[in-house]
User: What shape does this take?
Amino acid sequence: MDASLRESIYSDYLSASNIHELPSPEDRPFENQYAALKILEKAQSKLEKELSEEGKIIKTSIEHFIGKIHYSTEDRPSAVKNFQKCLLGLEAYVFDNRALGIFLKATNDLAIIYCEREEYQNAYSLLKHGEKVYKELAEKSIPLNSIWDSWEIIKPAEERNTPEARENAFEEVYTHTLFFLSQACQNLGKVEESSKNCGTCLHRQLKTITSQGPCS
Assistant: This one.
């Protein structure tokens, strides 16, 4: 992928991210979120002819971000389409360390909407796939500290996460996966599995707190 194109996409990402986080005027709700969407759609258009693996993974990052914005503007149907498209685009790259972070985040985000709609079986199936992928990482000798966060793929090398930050971020996302899986199981009457996932989730949270040490 051309370096100048990557820099342009990164600039669009920063602009969209900054605008998205700004509160919109009370009389024009979601104004800044819609402005961020326009920037991301422009970024998408720049990648229309990009066929490299890197370009395809970047497209899924943008699709995921757009889905998050649609969710925040209460447009659930559009968010579902974005998250589904993101996951579809990642099918060939699920075990690529540049794509795993995006994959698990999109899995969680889509499952949240399924649970909101009481489509618990859809959420369960999706989250079980996420769980399966996580468990296969060790079998494929993919260290957790090598898994990039969503936007690292377009960031300059000096702005990318450290190995420790990468592992912590990915483990946190997977803890959320287990939490949502526990909820889906509970609503499907899978009480034992729900309890097991809930216990694992709590153990992971306590482990994270312990590893951070006492409060200063």
Remarks:
- Confidence is low (pLDDT under 50) at residues 210-216.
- The radius of gyration is 18 Å.
